[in-house]
Amino acid sequence: MAPATSNATRPLVLDNACEGVGYTPLCRLDRLAKAHGIKSNLFGKVEFMSIGGSVKDRIAKRMVEQAEKDGVLIPGKSVVIEPTSGNTGIGLALACAIHGYPLIITLPEKMSLEKEVTMRALGAEIIRTPTAAASSSPLSNLGVAKRLKDAIPNAVILNQYANPNNPLAHELSTGPEIIAAIESLPGNQRVDVFIAGAGTGGTISGTAQALKRYNKDCTVVGVDPRGSILALPESLNKLEEGEDLAYQVEGIGYDFVPEVLSREPGLIDHWVKVQDEAAFKTVREVMRMEALLIGGSSGSAVAGALQWLKASPERDVEGKNVIIMLPDGLRNYMSKPWFANELLGREIGAELSPDVTTRIHKVLADNHKYSLSANEDASVNGKIEEAVSALAETMKGVTVGTRGVNGVGKAAA
């Protein structure tokens, strides 16, 4: 075993909000384990306790700070653009607010209203893109981000999908924090199993590098939603006849394999596929048994962990330490049908009542000119093009300062 190197204690006084990124606790999941007959020690890595509310705060902070050091981002000049499912966008909005960069986010329509509102509150501009657009399409959030970069002078895409600072953030912080926490316990001080969902793949790849360097026998399990293609072997990704390719869970799974998702042999040992229904059911279980207000991708990770542990007796061993990544919390999903309908006593998949839906869309329509509707397929390209052009024109007159694209702050020095 190599020694852990992280100082896993958050400062008591922060110079700015970015210093509150990370430093998240492990929480025992003993009640859940008992309810499912699990003998291993289950722990959740509670990332919604990071200052921006998710595991993606870590990569956003590192990508911005490293880009500044490398001269890729220039204070008073650069504009940051990023395609995201939301949490990286929130982390970037936080980091860009502190560092004084305008930020434009391209966000698929299926992502929650709460994510958009949070990013806007932090000063970001948002363009919504059709969820059904393939990643290679010019209408996808990746495609629209590229169009924005071409149209806006001094624009930079940090590109979480290929940026080495994505996994490195976890190798240098998330992994060492987990090790330090487990080392503080009596008895077994090894991380025996690490289980996490995969989106860009940076979280699982970077954390796995740190954990396997510390304990080469640590088993790493990736969780991938049904409908995604990230799992190996590829046969796991095959859908049943008539099974819907679309999935509701946000932040994990893709229709392409990001560069930062490591395919290095022996790094990610197993993969588990999880359906939406199991993920959302597990969210409610964890909330009511452990009082942790987790999000949908956390539900996927826990459901995948239970599925993997139960699949073979030798996997679930008394005294083993099993760490489950809980990427974000419920804050981002309280208006989503899978959660809101449950509270109202309706089944998953039922629509919110028309009056609720109308109020939600009215907020967007009244305040956010460039929000797009996925239902407007016939004219969506024109609307995106209009939004790109409008933002590009707006940026020409913006003084880049502490208030980003609003152009009302002091000019950066």
TrEMBL record:
<keyword id="KW-0663">Pyridoxal phosphate</keyword>
<protein>
    <recommendedName>
        <fullName>cystathionine beta-synthase</fullName>
        <ecNumber>4.2.1.22</ecNumber>
    </recommendedName>
</protein>
<dbReference type="Pfam" id="PF00291">
    <property type="entry name" value="PALP"/>
</dbReference>
<dbReference type="GO" id="GO:0006534">
    <property type="term" value="P:cysteine metabolic process"/>
</dbReference>
<comment type="similarity">
    <text>Belongs to the cysteine synthase/cystathionine beta-synthase family.</text>
</comment>
<feature type="domain" description="Tryptophan synthase beta chain-like PALP">
    <location>
        <begin position="20"/>
        <end position="328"/>
    </location>
</feature>
<dbReference type="GO" id="GO:0009069">
    <property type="term" value="P:serine family amino acid metabolic process"/>
</dbReference>
<dbReference type="InterPro" id="IPR036052">
    <property type="entry name" value="TrpB-like_PALP_sf"/>
</dbReference>
<comment type="pathway">
    <text>Amino-acid biosynthesis; L-cysteine biosynthesis; L-cysteine from L-homocysteine and L-serine: step 1/2.</text>
</comment>
<dbReference type="InterPro" id="IPR050214">
    <property type="entry name" value="Cys_Synth/Cystath_Beta-Synth"/>
</dbReference>
<dbReference type="InterPro" id="IPR001926">
    <property type="entry name" value="TrpB-like_PALP"/>
</dbReference>
<dbReference type="GO" id="GO:0044272">
    <property type="term" value="P:sulfur compound biosynthetic process"/>
</dbReference>
<dbReference type="GO" id="GO:0004122">
    <property type="term" value="F:cystathionine beta-synthase activity"/>
</dbReference>
